[in-house]
Amino acid sequence: MKLGFSQVCLMLFLFLAVSLQSQSGGGYRIGDVARDFKLKNVDGKMVSLASLKKAKGYVVIFTCNHCPFAVAYEDRIIALHKKYEKKGFPVVAINPNDKDIQPADSYENMQKRAKEKGFPFVYLYDETQEIARAYGATRTPHVFLLDKERRVRYIGAIDDNHEDPNGVKERYLENAIEALLAGKEVPRPETKAIGCTIKWRTASK
Q1: Counting Cβ atoms within 10 Å, is residue 151 exposed (0-12), middle (13-18) or buried (19+)?
Q2: What distance in Å separates the CA atoms of residue 41 and residue 114, rounded to the nearest whole number?
Protein backbone atom coordinates (compact mmCIF):
# COMPACT_ATOMS: atom_id res chain seq x y z
CA MET A 1 0.00 0.00 0.00
CA LYS A 2 1.35 3.38 -1.01
CA LEU A 3 1.28 6.21 1.48
CA GLY A 4 0.25 9.71 0.46
CA PHE A 5 2.48 12.72 0.98
CA SER A 6 0.43 13.96 3.95
CA GLN A 7 0.60 10.53 5.61
CA VAL A 8 4.38 10.40 5.19
CA CYS A 9 4.71 13.90 6.69
CA LEU A 10 2.50 12.90 9.64
CA MET A 11 4.60 9.80 10.30
CA LEU A 12 7.82 11.83 10.18
CA PHE A 13 6.34 14.40 12.56
CA LEU A 14 5.31 11.70 15.05
CA PHE A 15 8.73 10.06 14.82
CA LEU A 16 10.50 13.35 15.53
CA ALA A 17 8.16 14.14 18.42
CA VAL A 18 8.81 10.78 20.07
CA SER A 19 12.55 11.14 19.44
CA LEU A 20 12.68 14.60 21.02
CA GLN A 21 10.66 13.43 24.00
CA SER A 22 13.06 10.54 24.48
CA GLN A 23 16.07 12.84 24.35
CA SER A 24 14.56 15.28 26.83
CA GLY A 25 14.03 12.50 29.36
CA GLY A 26 10.36 13.30 29.95
CA GLY A 27 9.07 14.88 33.13
CA TYR A 28 7.38 18.20 33.71
CA ARG A 29 7.88 21.37 31.73
CA ILE A 30 7.10 24.95 32.68
CA GLY A 31 3.33 25.36 32.85
CA ASP A 32 2.54 21.69 33.48
CA VAL A 33 0.43 20.76 36.49
CA ALA A 34 2.43 18.43 38.71
CA ARG A 35 0.85 15.39 40.32
CA ASP A 36 0.50 15.18 44.05
CA PHE A 37 2.09 12.32 45.96
CA LYS A 38 2.20 10.68 49.36
CA LEU A 39 5.69 9.86 50.64
CA LYS A 40 7.14 8.95 54.05
CA ASN A 41 8.73 11.76 56.02
CA VAL A 42 11.70 11.22 58.34
CA ASP A 43 9.27 11.31 61.29
CA GLY A 44 7.49 8.25 59.89
CA LYS A 45 4.36 10.12 58.78
CA MET A 46 3.05 10.15 55.21
CA VAL A 47 3.07 13.61 53.60
CA SER A 48 1.39 14.93 50.48
CA LEU A 49 1.36 18.42 49.00
CA ALA A 50 -2.35 18.62 49.77
CA SER A 51 -1.57 18.01 53.45
CA LEU A 52 0.36 21.30 53.61
CA LYS A 53 -2.83 23.28 54.18
CA LYS A 54 -1.50 26.84 54.36
CA ALA A 55 0.75 26.58 51.31
CA LYS A 56 0.48 29.11 48.50
CA GLY A 57 3.00 27.07 46.54
CA TYR A 58 5.64 24.40 46.99
CA VAL A 59 9.44 24.42 46.76
CA VAL A 60 10.02 20.80 45.74
CA ILE A 61 13.72 19.95 45.91
CA PHE A 62 15.10 16.53 45.00
CA THR A 63 18.18 16.12 47.18
CA CYS A 64 20.01 13.50 49.25
CA ASN A 65 22.48 12.87 52.07
CA HIS A 66 25.76 12.01 50.37
CA CYS A 67 26.13 14.27 47.31
CA PRO A 68 28.65 17.10 47.88
CA PHE A 69 26.42 19.50 45.93
CA ALA A 70 23.40 18.62 48.06
CA VAL A 71 25.45 18.96 51.26
CA ALA A 72 26.78 22.34 50.09
CA TYR A 73 23.21 23.60 49.69
CA GLU A 74 21.76 22.27 52.96
CA ASP A 75 22.18 25.48 54.94
CA ARG A 76 20.80 27.54 52.06
CA ILE A 77 17.77 25.25 51.77
CA ILE A 78 17.18 25.59 55.52
CA ALA A 79 17.38 29.38 55.22
CA LEU A 80 15.00 29.37 52.23
CA HIS A 81 12.43 27.36 54.14
CA LYS A 82 12.67 29.60 57.21
CA LYS A 83 12.24 32.69 55.04
CA TYR A 84 9.45 31.52 52.75
CA GLU A 85 7.48 28.89 54.68
CA LYS A 86 5.78 31.65 56.67
CA LYS A 87 4.94 33.35 53.35
CA GLY A 88 3.30 30.19 52.06
CA PHE A 89 6.14 28.52 50.16
CA PRO A 90 7.49 25.62 52.24
CA VAL A 91 10.39 23.45 51.13
CA VAL A 92 9.44 19.87 50.33
CA ALA A 93 12.72 17.92 50.16
CA ILE A 94 12.67 14.50 48.51
CA ASN A 95 15.44 11.90 48.44
CA PRO A 96 15.09 9.78 45.25
CA ASN A 97 18.32 7.76 45.42
CA ASP A 98 18.48 3.97 45.48
CA LYS A 99 19.94 2.93 48.84
CA ASP A 100 21.41 -0.25 47.36
CA ILE A 101 23.56 1.82 45.01
CA GLN A 102 24.26 4.55 47.57
CA PRO A 103 23.77 3.22 51.15
CA ALA A 104 24.38 6.69 52.58
CA ASP A 105 20.98 7.65 51.19
CA SER A 106 18.96 5.03 53.07
CA TYR A 107 15.86 6.09 55.01
CA GLU A 108 17.68 5.52 58.31
CA ASN A 109 20.51 7.80 57.20
CA MET A 110 17.96 10.39 56.08
CA GLN A 111 16.61 10.39 59.64
CA LYS A 112 20.11 10.81 61.06
CA ARG A 113 20.97 13.64 58.66
CA ALA A 114 17.73 15.49 59.31
CA LYS A 115 18.36 15.29 63.06
CA GLU A 116 22.01 16.37 62.76
CA LYS A 117 21.13 19.42 60.66
CA GLY A 118 17.83 20.19 62.34
CA PHE A 119 15.89 20.24 59.09
CA PRO A 120 12.80 22.44 59.64
CA PHE A 121 11.17 21.09 56.45
CA VAL A 122 9.79 17.69 55.53
CA TYR A 123 12.37 15.27 54.11
CA LEU A 124 10.59 12.56 52.14
CA TYR A 125 11.77 9.21 50.82
CA ASP A 126 10.89 8.40 47.20
CA GLU A 127 11.78 4.74 47.61
CA THR A 128 10.25 3.58 44.31
CA GLN A 129 11.61 6.66 42.47
CA GLU A 130 8.18 7.08 40.89
CA ILE A 131 7.92 10.74 41.82
CA ALA A 132 11.43 11.65 40.64
CA ARG A 133 10.64 10.05 37.28
CA ALA A 134 7.26 11.78 37.04
CA TYR A 135 8.83 15.16 37.75
CA GLY A 136 11.80 14.56 35.46
CA ALA A 137 14.41 15.10 38.17
CA THR A 138 17.94 14.16 37.13
CA ARG A 139 20.24 15.72 39.75
CA THR A 140 20.59 16.36 43.44
CA PRO A 141 19.69 19.07 44.09
CA HIS A 142 17.03 19.68 41.43
CA VAL A 143 14.32 22.29 42.08
CA PHE A 144 10.69 22.36 40.93
CA LEU A 145 8.80 25.44 42.11
CA LEU A 146 5.03 24.99 42.01
CA ASP A 147 2.25 27.51 42.54
CA LYS A 148 -0.90 26.83 44.58
CA GLU A 149 -2.48 24.89 41.71
CA ARG A 150 0.73 22.82 41.45
CA ARG A 151 1.57 24.42 38.14
CA VAL A 152 5.33 24.29 37.49
CA ARG A 153 6.72 27.83 37.45
CA TYR A 154 10.47 27.24 37.80
CA ILE A 155 12.83 24.30 37.21
CA GLY A 156 16.56 24.12 37.80
CA ALA A 157 19.24 25.23 40.24
CA ILE A 158 18.95 27.08 43.54
CA ASP A 159 21.47 29.75 42.57
CA ASP A 160 24.56 30.29 40.42
CA ASN A 161 27.31 29.26 42.87
CA HIS A 162 27.21 25.91 44.63
CA GLU A 163 30.75 26.33 46.00
CA ASP A 164 30.45 29.63 47.83
CA PRO A 165 27.19 31.06 49.21
CA ASN A 166 28.89 34.43 49.60
CA GLY A 167 29.82 34.40 45.92
CA VAL A 168 26.27 34.00 44.63
CA LYS A 169 25.35 36.61 42.03
CA GLU A 170 21.93 35.34 40.96
CA ARG A 171 19.47 33.63 43.30
CA TYR A 172 17.32 31.82 40.73
CA LEU A 173 14.93 30.11 43.14
CA GLU A 174 14.53 33.06 45.48
CA ASN A 175 13.86 35.40 42.56
CA ALA A 176 11.24 32.99 41.24
CA ILE A 177 9.45 32.78 44.61
CA GLU A 178 9.50 36.57 44.97
CA ALA A 179 7.97 36.90 41.50
CA LEU A 180 5.10 34.57 42.41
CA LEU A 181 4.50 36.40 45.69
CA ALA A 182 4.27 39.65 43.72
CA GLY A 183 1.85 38.10 41.22
CA LYS A 184 4.37 38.36 38.39
CA GLU A 185 5.82 35.96 35.85
CA VAL A 186 9.06 34.27 36.85
CA PRO A 187 11.86 36.25 35.12
CA ARG A 188 13.99 33.18 34.42
CA PRO A 189 11.77 30.10 34.59
CA GLU A 190 14.40 27.51 33.77
CA THR A 191 18.09 26.98 34.53
CA LYS A 192 20.40 23.98 34.46
CA ALA A 193 20.40 21.89 37.63
CA ILE A 194 23.95 21.31 38.87
CA GLY A 195 24.65 18.31 41.10
CA CYS A 196 25.17 14.57 41.35
CA THR A 197 23.16 12.31 39.08
CA ILE A 198 20.27 10.48 40.69
CA LYS A 199 21.16 6.89 41.54
CA TRP A 200 18.47 4.96 39.68
CA ARG A 201 17.36 1.46 40.58
CA THR A 202 18.40 -1.33 38.26
CA ALA A 203 15.81 -2.74 35.87
CA SER A 204 15.87 -6.12 37.61
CA LYS A 205 14.36 -4.71 40.82
Answers
A1: middle
A2: 10
Q: Determine contact, residues 66/195, Cβ cutoff 8 Å.
A: no
Instruction: Report yes or no: 34 and 48 within 8 Å, Cβ to Cβ.
Output: no
Which DSSP helix (H) or strand (E) runs through 142? strand 142-147
Domains of the chain: 28-197 (3.40.30.10)
**Residues 158, 141: contact at Cβ < 8 Å?**
yes
Q: How do 152-156 and 142-147 pair as beta strands?
A: antiparallel
Looking at the whole model, is its pTM more than 0.85?
A: yes
How many angstroms separate the CA atoms of 156 and 174, rounded? 12
**Alpha-carbon gap, residue 88 to 94, rounded angstroms:** 19
Nearest to 97 by CA among 120, 117, 118, 69: 69
93, pLDDT greater than 50: yes
Residues belonging to the chain: 205
Residues 6+ apart with CB under 8 A from 18: none
pLDDT in tens, 49-79: 999 999 999 999 999 999 999 999 999 999 9
